[in-house]
Amino acid sequence: LVAYELGAGGRMASVSFQSAAMGGVFARFPRALLVHRAAGPAGRVLYVFLVAGPAPGLRGGMARVVHLAVPRDESAGSLARMYGAFRAFNPAWAETRLLLVGPGLPQPPALAQAFPSAEVQLSVFHLCKSLQQQVQRLALEGCTERLILAALSDTVHAATEGSRRKMHALLRDLVAPDLLPQLHIRWLLDDEIWAAHRERSWGEASNYFRDLEIVTQGLSQVFSAELSLESCITSLAWHYQNEPMSPQSSLDPSSPAAKPEATENLEGDSEEINRRTEEGIKQSLSDICTEPAARLCLSEFAVVQKSVQLIGTGEDALSIQVLEDAHRVDMKGLSSCTCHFNQVFQLPCRHILAVLNSDRKTLQPEMLRRQWRKGCDAHQAGQDSADGLLEILKSSWNESLDKSLVVSFLMAEVSRLLTHCSREEFEHRYRTLRELADSWIGPYVEVKL
Predict the structure, then answer these.
(1) Distance between CA 94 and CA 79 in Å, rounded?
(2) Contact yes or no for 135/141 (Cβ under 8 A)
(3) Does residue 309 register a pLDDT over 60?
(4) Which of 40, 206, 258, 387 has the most CB atoms around its CB within 10 Å?
């Protein structure tokens, strides 16, 4: 699921991303949600939403991630739209009762309004990380810093009232009084902040902090790269999908823990609908198109199946992006797209196929030019194929196109040109190819055509 806004020049200005696995995890564990904020280049900010409560069956920190978002800015309106996208993606949002946030989260009222039934509370993870970083910046003596950090570690793993008071006293005694306000040591004695964390055992607390640190550091590092927002969300999605996790993680679709009981049938039905839609598109390509045309389009469809598609609506066209350069599909007949593949071959490209897949539709004969349809007039088809070959040969080189793809286009066109012609024309064209091959490689070498 992807929601986005376009800015100046038609570039992506904001995006909210969530996979089916993320949605499944949140549906199982919606009661406690942690919101992590990471600053990036060019003033952009990444918001990571993670399940924060007990989550039996989850292995690895990335399994806790349920939503990624980059708002247009951090105004109240932009953040409200971001939280609104999260709610739209997750019907279980109304079950959330606790929201954990870091110090200084912008526009807290926007978050509280989006989740009126939840309590917004300071995150112990963010509190301890902030305290650790500030202690390290104080440039204390080595033994003093090690003593404070060791006490902080004990507090993290066993958040008893005694350990928190000990940590509070240690900071008060070892840090200069004028530096104490920036450490916010009063938070150590706030029982409400520590209430949820106190219920964790030593091992649970250790795993929880380790998982959150690995996840937040990894995603922040990916986000800090100087990339366009389109490339950035692609890199974040790749990092999420490829981060090593235990085979028993709830993100593993083969694991029984991957789907909650309450939504198991719903997700199964959705997968079956997707499978039938994809099979219908493949069958319609085989039924309507000539074999070379079907082969080319199936290659395009394979890209659609393995990617995320962003589909935005306009008055007269759909903006389709298969996480690459955006192209526009004509809504009238779904037969025209601005991409190179469709412009040259006049065949359904990955962008048109993405629309068909999204709308649960199949290919129709009127979406194809006549020479690509089965049973069309052979002579006319041959002439049209020749025109297609000329279009490729006359088109300017585009470095973004893979060389092997261009070669495959030429091979397909030549094959089609030889297929849709009379026997006399075939003999003439074959002799021409024979001469061309000999001129390239030499008549002394046997060239198999």
Answers:
(1) 18
(2) no
(3) no
(4) 258
Task: Centre a 10 Å sphere on the Cβ of residue 406 and count the other Cβ atoms it contains.
Answer: 16
Quick: pLDDT tens for 92-135.
Answer: 888 988 888 888 888 888 989 889 988 888 888 888 888 888 88
User: Quick one: three-class SS letters along the chain?
Assistant: CEEEEECHHHCEEEEEECCHHHHHHHHHCCCEEEEEEEECHHHCEEEEEEECCCCCCCCCHHHHEEEEEECCCCCHHHHHHHHHHHHHHCHHHHHCCEEEECCCCCCHHHHHHHCCCCEEEECHHHHHHHHHHHHHHCCCCHHHHHHHHHHHHHHHHCCCHHHHHHHHHHHHHHCCHHHHHHHCHHHHHCHHHHHHHHCCCHHHHHHHHHHHHHHHHHHHHHHCCCCCHHHHHHHHHHHHHHCCCCCCCCCCCCCHHHCCHHHHHHHHHHHHHHHHHHHHHHHHHHHHECHHHHHHHHHHHHHHHCCCCEEEECCCEEEEECCCCCEEEECCCCCCECCHHHHHHCCCCHHHHHHHHHCCCCCCHHHCCHHHECCCCHHHHHHHHHHHHHHHHHCCCCCCCCHHHHHHHHHHHHHHHHHCCCHHHHHHHHHHHHHHHHHHHCCCCCCCC
pLDDT of residue 252: 31
> Residues 327-359, buried b or exposed e (16+ Cβ, 10 A)?
bbbeeeebbbbbbbbbebbbbbbbbbbbbbbee
Please, which pLDDT band fits residue 47 given cuts at 50, 70 and 90? very high
Q: Are the C-beta atoms of 131 and 183 separated by less than 8 Å?
A: yes
Chain segment 148-183, per-residue pLDDT in tens: 888 888 787 777 778 888 888 888 888 878 777 777
How high is the mean pLDDT of the chain?
75
Distance (Å, whole) CA 179 – CA 185:
11
pLDDT on residue 379: 47
The pLDDT tens digits for 53-88 are 776 666 667 888 899 988 888 899 999 999 988 988
Predicted model pTM: 0.54
* Residue in this structure with the two tokens 């629309």, named with its chain if needed: 355
Please indicate whether residue 205 or residue 396 has the higher confidence score (pLDDT). Answer: 205
- Going by pLDDT thresholds of 50, 70 and 90, the confidence category of residue 271 is low
Architecture of domain 2-121+200-255: 2-Layer Sandwich (3.30)
